[in-house]
C-alpha cells in the first residue's frame, strides 16, 4: 500500500546484531521459558510501551528491564479517546481543553505546557521534554506503572548490539548473552516520512491516505463517500485534504491545523455533514450532536469549543508560519 506497513515482527532493524545475541520482536516474549538475565527494550513508541507493560504485568522486576528510549514522547490520555456517553466530559471536554490551550498559548513550548496541564497530553518523565509525538494513547495508571522502570537509556539510536555491549549514537552500555533484547524499533511514521504525498484523487487513481488524524478507517470511508458522490477533482481533494502524520513534537501543529480545516470544510457541506453524523466510524460526531440542550454541563463544554475554535486555528497558523521560518 502507499502508506506501507512496518511492524516489529516483519521489519529489518536498522542496526547490526551479533549472532550470539538473544534478539526478538515483542510477539515472541510469551515463548520465553527460562528466566533471562534481564530484558533490554529498544524503542520509545507505543510498541515499546506495550512490551514494558507486558513484562511488568507478568511479574518481571522493573530493575531487570533496561529501556532504550532515543526520544521521549508526548502521549494522549486514553480516557479522552472514548466516544461514549460515560466519557463525555473526558472526550468532548478534551477538545475544549485542546482548543483553549492552543488559543491561549504565547509560544509553541507554552502550548505543550498548557496541553499537559489541561490533561490533553501526558509524558512518562516530568524531567524530560518530549521531542516526539506519534499520537500513542495511554492510561494514567499505565504511566504510573511504567515509571517503575528506572533504567532508562537516552543515548540516541542503537547502531550495533554485540555479545557484551550495545553501541548507540552517543555512547554504549553493557549487555550479555543472557539478556533478551526486545525489538520495538519499527516505525510506520518514519517509513511514511519517506513518501512524497500525492492527492487522494488524481485522474483515475485513488490513493487513500489520512484525512483525519489517527483514523485510517474513517479516512478511507470518507474517500469512498466523496468518490461516489462528487465529480470535480478539485472539490474532491479539498474535502479529502491530507492530514500529515506526526513524528516530531512540533508536527502536532500542522496535523491539528489540517484536521480543523477539514472539519470546517465538511461542516459547510450539508449532505456530507449528515453522512458523517451517521458514519459508525465517527463516534464523536454522534456524541456531540446528541447532546441534550438542557444539560448545562455538556452545553458549557460545547460553548467552550465554539468560542475557542477560531482563535485556536489562528494561533496554529501563527505557529505553523514560525516553524516554516525556522523560529
Automatic annotation (TrEMBL):
<dbReference type="InterPro" id="IPR036188">
    <property type="entry name" value="FAD/NAD-bd_sf"/>
</dbReference>
<protein>
    <recommendedName>
        <fullName>Pyridine nucleotide-disulfide oxidoreductase</fullName>
    </recommendedName>
</protein>
